[in-house]
Amino acid sequence: MSLVHGEHMELFGTGNTMRLAKRANQLQFRRIAESRERLCRVELPALLAENGGSTVPPIDLVDGWHLDRSGTLPHLDQLIKESGEIIAERGLRPKKAGEAERSFFQSIQKADDFTRYPSILNFALSSDVLGAVCRYMQTIPVLSRTFPQGVRLAESSITFDARPQDGYRSSQLYHLDHHDTPMVYVIVLLKDVTERGGPFTFLSDSVSTRAAAAMRYQTRAVDYRVPDETMYRHVARTDAQVMALPQGTVLFLDSSRCFHYGSRDAYDPRYQMMYAYTSVCRTDFSEWFTNVRPFPGTAHDSRLRRLVLDKDAAASFSP
Ligand SMILES: [Fe+2]
After folding, report:
1. Taking Cα atoms as reference points, which of 184, 205, 190 lies closest to residue 308?
2. Residue 113 Cα, ligand 1 centroid: separation in angstroms?
3. Ligand 1 center from residue 147 Cα (angstroms)
């Protein structure tokens, strides 16, 4: 288990552990990965059309990110409405006893929400969103079933922070996700976020790459979490992009290439839907220690939708 989490990967070197995990996962999943890469290269337009087609101009990540402020992505209005019902029902309830380290953050979404609130998966699996993710990742990805969870309705609040005296820690500090690379987060602001809501904050790919090189980030014994005073020795504070933005804003981000943090001093609770897409050959060992089950699908699902919900679906769709 010690190789799963970022903090414990430092001893061997996070980069070394990621390369080792990639190779180990390729031994098991190379065939599925190649099939998905081929599908993306050869059949993506057909897969997107079968999945309902695109409704907005193509979205492309530039320098590791794209911010959609149009409010026009399909299922977005319904997602905000249905998420609002979940927040009204479960928001700001005391956390179950658990990890004090990250007690400022919890997912309030449950497994049966996928059938009760169909917009949660419909948004994540729309052709507009998946087109952007597939073109960027150059494969047909899956919604992660391990770390991070592929779908989270994330509530950030200082109210339940068990260790406020410890200062910023865990995901409140700059880091690059180590679960896969490339990987894409799609983050939907479910309510307006202000500076008092612990806004998600990130650096672009090029700025992050410069900082990572200067810090020798992901090499042996270099801290996985980076305090601001270290980061801002290498990049300007004005390089940080702060998601203190209105409800309905959607961020597409390669979280393995763009440093990010969030949930700092969230005096106003912050609510985000967070989707995590990875390839089938990850750069961590999380699937080795977790019982991985596909997300719920139906017999009417398109090929693309089934592929993203279920890692094993690729085998039956090889061109
Ligand atoms: Fe992260």
Report:
1. 184
2. 24
3. 10
The residue whose two tokens read 């806004």 is: 199
Going from the Cα of 59 to the center of ligand 1, the distance in angstroms, rounded, reads: 22
Residues 6+ apart with CB under 8 A from 255: 176, 177, 183, 184, 185, 202, 276
Residues sharing a CB contact under 8 Å with residue 273, sequence separation 6 or more, in sequence order: 79, 83, 120, 123, 151, 152, 153, 154, 187, 188, 190
- In the reported structure, the alpha carbon of residue 316 is separated from the centroid of ligand 1 by a whole-number distance in angstroms of 33
What does the pLDDT look like over 178-221, one tens digit per residue? 999 999 999 999 999 999 999 999 999 999 999 999 999 999 88
Q: Where are the domains of the chain?
A: 6-317
308 SS3 class: helix
Q: At what angle do helices 14-50 and 127-137 cross, to 10 degrees?
A: 140
* Ligand 1 centre distance from Cα of residue 277 (Å): 13
CA distance 167 to 150: 28
**Ligand 1 centre and the CA of 115: distance in Å?**
27
Instruction: Pick one of 1.10.1200.10, 3.90.1640.10, 3.40.50.11220, 2.60.120.620 as the CATH number of 6-317.
Output: 2.60.120.620
What is the Å distance from ligand 1's center to 29 Cα?
24
User: 10 Å Cβ neighbour count for 268?
Assistant: 16
308 pLDDT band, cuts 50/70/90, is: very high
User: DSSP state, 66?
Assistant: E
Residue 218 CA to ligand 1 center (angstroms) comes to 14
- What pLDDT was estimated at residue 280? 96
